[in-house]
Amino acid sequence: xxxxxxxxxxxxxxxxxxxxxxxxxxxxxxxxxxxxxxxxxxxxxxxxxxxxxxxxxxxxxxxxxxxxxxxxxxxxxxxxxxxxxxxxxxxxxxxxxxxxxxxxxxxxxxxxxxxxxxxxxxxxxxxxxxxxxxxxxxxxxxxxxxxxxxxxxxxxxxxxxxxxxxxxxxxxxxxxxxxxxxxxxxxxxxxxxxxxxxxxxxxxxxxxxxxxxxxxxxxxxxxxxxx
Length: 227
What we know:
Helices cover 81% and strands 0% of the residues. The protein has helices at 7-17, 19-51, 59-88, 95-101, 108-128, 130-139, 143-149, 155-166, 170-178, 181-189, 193-226.
C-alpha cells in the first residue's frame, strides 16, 4: 500500500458535513494549552521585565514551568486523545462522551503513559541528532489513533503497532505532511485564524482518513496470513 492522497478529498467532504463540531473540537483541543502556557509566558515576561534574565532562575518561575509541563501531560495530552477519538467517530455525534472517556479510570493512565512515552522517545532520539528524532516521530505518528482504535493494547503494544503501520512509509508520511505547507502558511498569514477555521481541522481529518487506510491494509495482511 502506498499513501493515497485522495484521503484529503474525503477529509474535505467530512469537514464540510461536520464543520461546526470540527471547529468546536479544535477550540477545545487548544483551549487549555492557551490558558496554561499563555499564563506561564505572561508571568515569565513580567518577571524578566522586573528582574532581568535572573528571573529565569527564580523558584516561582521554575515551579510554574514544572506545573505547566505536568498539566500538559496530565490534562492536555489525554484531551488530545479524546478529541482525536471524536474526529474518528464524527458520525456518532457523541463527542462529549468520547472526551470524557479519555479521562475515565479505564483509559486515563493508559493515555497519559503512552503519550508521555511517545514524546520521551522522540526527544531521546532527537538528542542523537535531528534525523533520528524525525524518524522516530514518524514511527510513532499514529500513536493517539492506535490508542482509540485498539483499546485492548498496552502502551508498549500501541507503540509497536504504530511502528508496524509506518514501516516503509516514513518518507511517504513526510511528503503527506509537506502537502499541507500551503495551509500552514495560510495559518501564519492570518495569525492563526485560518488555521483554526480550516487548515488544522482539514489536516487532522486527513490523518484520520489516512489512518483508516492503514488499518484496512493491516487487517487485510492479517487475514491473508491466516489463509
